[in-house]
Amino acid sequence: MQRTIFAAYIVAITALAGCATKVAQIEKPEPPYQGPIVRLRYAPGPSNTIRVGEPTALDYVNARREEAGLPLIAVDDKLAEAAADHAHYLDINRVGTHDEIEGRPGFTGVDVITRVRLHTPAYGASEVLAVFGGPRPVDTPIEDIFASPYHRGAILFDWARAGEASIVGSSSVTVVDFADIAPTLSETELVAWPYDGQRGVPTAWVNNEQPDPMGADARYRGQVLGFPLTLSGGPNAHIELRSVELRDHRGKKVACKIAPLTAADAARNTAICTPYEPLRTGTRYTVHALGRVTQLGKVAPFDLAWAFTTLDENRKARSLVAQSDSR
């Protein structure tokens, strides 16, 4: 009898100790959010207005924006002149940076806003570029730029106008300069890419982007990873992903890395989750993302779900064979 009482007493103390520990760790809960619900912007998908594959980078940019339900960016010849200046600098110096060093051949300005303002007044500017060691079709570099998630965020940003320049010779250089803001997204809208219902999504991406969405872990540099998922907001949006659940058509979880946030990321309007491995071809994936978006001091949580389907490489290969046979 004494043993039974002693055992029960020990269990009771352990349980009480556990309760005491939990009470000490409880924090005051945040008041429930009662503001407007954050939603994904409706993406209408491909349109016949712009043909994908046109020989300019901005044709590709505007085709992707139209798919995502965003307005087209106006083509600006003065911005194209600024882009051409920097493309020339990159080509003759064989570098691939946004900044220029005074004294080097082709120098026009240390940064993009300085170079843009040499040609046109602008209160804001950004730039995306790609440099390859050999000749490539003009539309290929912009596809690689768009696949890179931070650069994709810049392309889906609320820019009003843009200009481009490409050099194809012993090397291939593409530069696109953007300027001025044309507000489009509301404070409760986010743009997903791949978007809900999208088909033909690439399965993989080579991680050569700076800044690196995989963080400081250098082992992922230059590696073939899964196609990155992005959520982008308006000019003042700061998006924090708490969790991303990516599943294939069988319900199997696919691990992806949320891009780490640093002090330098405070002004970024794009959140990223990159799968560690290439996705499966011709497969439907579902995404469930939890997080919050902060804009001008207002914080709104989000709980978003959508789905997309990757490119069916086997079907594409059969189509190419059929075309070849019909010639």
TrEMBL record:
Tagged with keyword Signal: yes
Domain of life: Bacteria
Keyword line: Signal
Leader peptide range in chain numbering: 1-17
InterPro entries per UniProt: CAP_dom (IPR014044), CAP_sf (IPR035940)
All copies of domain SCP, residue ranges: 58-121
Name listed for the protein in its UniProt record: CAP domain-containing protein
